[in-house]
From TrEMBL:
Pfam families: DUF383. The lineage of its organism: Eukaryota, Sar, Alveolata, Apicomplexa, Aconoidasida. It comes from the Eukaryota. It comes from Plasmodium vinckei vinckei. Residues 117-264 form the Protein HGH1 N-terminal domain. This is Protein HGH1 N-terminal domain-containing protein.
Amino acid sequence: MMLIAEEVENSKNTQKEPIDVSVYNELFSFAASDNEVLKKESLKIILGLLDEPDLIAYILQNSQKSFKIIISSLNSQSKMVALECLLNLSAQIPTEVLERNVVEILFDLIKDEEKYEENYIDMYIMIISNLTRCKEGIYKILDITDVNQVYHNTFSVSYYLNKLLYFYFQPVQKSLNKNMTDKFMHVSHILINITSMKESLPFFKNIAFLNKLCEQILILERCRTFLPFIMNLSLHKEIHEFIFQADCNMFPYLLSYLYTPHTAIEDKNSISGYTMRPNKTIHRTIIKKSTSLVRCPVIKNRILVILLHLSKDNDTKERIKKYGIIALLNNWKENENAPDIISEIKGLLSKFEEVIEDSEPEK
């Protein structure tokens, strides 16, 4: 084992010197060992080499054997290293990982472990998130076997998606990953990946379901990663009748981050020229949920991008104006300190204040 480690290290230090295939054969042979120490050390070396094109090529050429060894290690003391290998591979060769039924295996593990406080569910979700970066992964999560059987006018349900959202609806928990403050943060990434495809839209055509999802907007730790999901839905006209419906909380919750109560706003009808009363045009839910202007620049900039997109289409412009967007933007402008954002707000105001001229009737 020491000789293999030395040979691997020497090959890595030598420019463009490929590692002999026999080394990979031995590494995977050791990784299949019943000796837990040998297995773990071998997997660690494999993990360290997964950035090498030669090893990826080897795994692709010996797919059945390689994945069998890594996946079987999930039932050993080397579970975490095996998961890290799968995480790396799911980012590089997601289609091949999917072909090894990894999604089904991970959901079986989730089912077994969810009752325990200490679990690896966040790692499973991270791997699944990588797998949804390809079309086949999205179809797997949505249980779409035939695109032609997707009924776009019917609300659809997916076991895998609902299971992931079950965790997403739990309170924020610390992750195994020290760099993650939210154990289930990567469910947001899965939602973003899924909604990049129009085939996903039937799974969101339900106001109660959307409102449950939108509760995550009000959790600051999740709002930032949730916003691209809103952007994706906004890009699909087919879903507009749902996300802009009067009972849908998506935009009122989102816009509540921009509103600051008790702000003095210019008012020509007031004796002093200013008023601190909420503008009657601002949606009541926005006023109810607001506390003060959000400080996070990422959230503010992403909301700006969403509003800019909505302002480009007359239909969505009129829909968003019903929330009192002009009064809201003026409120935001009064409380914003960043000059670049103030400039963006002014640009948005000019777009939303534009009068939409009716086209001339046909003669």
